[in-house]
Amino acid sequence: MAYTIKDVARRAGVGIATVSRVLNDSPNVLPATRARILAIIDELGYRPNQAARQLVTARSHAIAVVLPFLTRPFFIEVLRGIEAVIAQSGYQLIIFNVETIEQREHYFGTLPFLGRTDGLIILSLPLGSIELQRLHDAEMPAVFIDTSAPGYSSVEVNNVAGAQLAVEHLIQRGHTRIAYISGPLHPTLGFPVNRDRKQGYELALLAHQLPVRAEYIRPGDDGRAIGCATALELLDLPEPPTAIFTASDEQAFGVIDALT
Question: Are strands 178-182 and 142-145 parallel, antiparallel or unpaired?
């Protein structure tokens, strides 16, 4: 049997408005009354109608994640963390995958106004001024991960410093011929990570007065197979590197394959 909010109110001896306030976590309910209503909701297995709740509260109870290249391992792992938190919050997760500039422009031209989400998590997608203005005009709460935007909270890694530390470690181990394998330095969607890590790589070399050798810098597509093929090319050089720094785990696995 599917119970309604009226059934909960009748069983608790309160009005429908009181049950609604409990469902929407309003503070204007006595603690004892809240506890009694929550116990009855649990006993009956009542679940509010999401569509009706959205009409009443003007909220969708959904959070959207906008990210590029959904199937890549890094983004899957970040999504795993996001989903673990959202699953405990009573919110729904909506995913928008972006692989072209046109898709990005379309989503940010419509998403903030659709009423389908209460907030956005924007992962690794630098936004242009027009897209940021649309987000701002919609007064849409947003958090950026692995990228940033003026006026919004962000969670980022310092890719320049991280790369510099990694290459410093190799230099401390006695290596002077160090190569760098990365994804595209000027990708279509504008990700800065590969350029930032290249900068850190170069800073570490220059700090130890080591040359930045063009033949050791190999940007290309991401992925394990590319990492393997690129490492084999580097090892075939007349003076091959003795160490390789990669911009991603997948490329590192490919290098290990090549060395094996």
Answer: unpaired
Q: How far is CA 37 from CA 5, 32, 75, in A?
A: 11, 9, 40
Q: What residues contact residue 169 under an 8 Å CB cut-off, 6+ apart?
A: none
Cα distance between residue 161 and residue 179, in whole Å: 17
Tell me if residue 50 falls in helix, strand or coil.
helix
With cut-offs at 50, 70 and 90, classify the pLDDT of residue 80: very high
What does the block give as tokens for 126? 């630098």
Tally of residues, the chain: 260
Number of neighbours of residue 30 by Cβ within 10 angstroms: 9
| Residue 260: pLDDT over 80 | yes
179's CB contacts (< 8 A; 6+ apart) are 216, 217, 218, 234, 241, 243, 244, 245
What is the spatial distance between Cα 116 and Cα 187, in angstroms, rounded to a whole number?
30
| DSSP structure class, residue 112 | G
pLDDT digits (tens, 9 = 90+) for 178-194: 999 999 988 878 888 99
pTM for the model stands at 0.70
